[in-house]
Amino acid sequence: RKEYVDLYVNYVFNESVQKPFQDFMQGFLRGCPARNWKMFLPVELQVVLQGHITIDWHLLEKNVVYWLYNKSDKTIKDFWNVFHELPEEKKKMFLGFLSGSDRIPGYRLECFKFSIVDPQAENPDELYPSASTCSLNFYLPR
């Protein structure tokens, strides 16, 4: 029985997917040659491909650029107070809303910046917060 299980597991996890995996690997290496990946340590390569999975949220706050707002504005203070009280999962959901991903790209965390912008609406109570994922702008009505 052990031999049968070993052979079956080997077939399911190795042999049955060998052709699709080889096709994937060939296409991947055509776009991203292996010599470019050899410069990374495995941990660094994981960050490059997956992004940072742990985030210093206070560092993220320090990197924000404000448009038509000041850091001392009540709206901004209230936003950050509420944000820092959120659980980790909700903070990552905000990051997904802002950037399209719940992770920060592989470059240094200190380099990730986004903007909080006042949309300058006549009646800000009629607007919801919105985001532009391409330009990393978070539109926060007063």
TrEMBL record:
EC number: 2.3.2.26
UniProt key word Ligase: yes
Catalysis: reaction(s): S-ubiquitinyl-[E2 ubiquitin-conjugating enzyme]-L-cysteine + [acceptor protein]-L-lysine = [E2 ubiquitin-conjugating enzyme]-L-cysteine + N(6)-ubiquitinyl-[acceptor protein]-L-lysine
Domain HECT: 1-142
GO molecular function terms attached to this record: ligase activity; ubiquitin protein ligase activity
PROSITE patterns: HECT
Record flagged with keyword Manganese: no
Active site, renumbered: 134 (glycyl thioester intermediate)
Keywords from the UniProt entry: Ligase, Transferase, Ubl conjugation pathway
InterPro entries in UniProt: E3A/B/C-like, HECT_dom, Hect_E3_ubiquitin_ligase
Enzyme class: transferase
One BP annotation, GO: protein polyubiquitination
The protein's name: HECT-type E3 ubiquitin transferase
Organism: Mionectes macconnelli (McConnell's flycatcher)
Native organism taxonomy: Eukaryota, Metazoa, Chordata, Craniata, Vertebrata
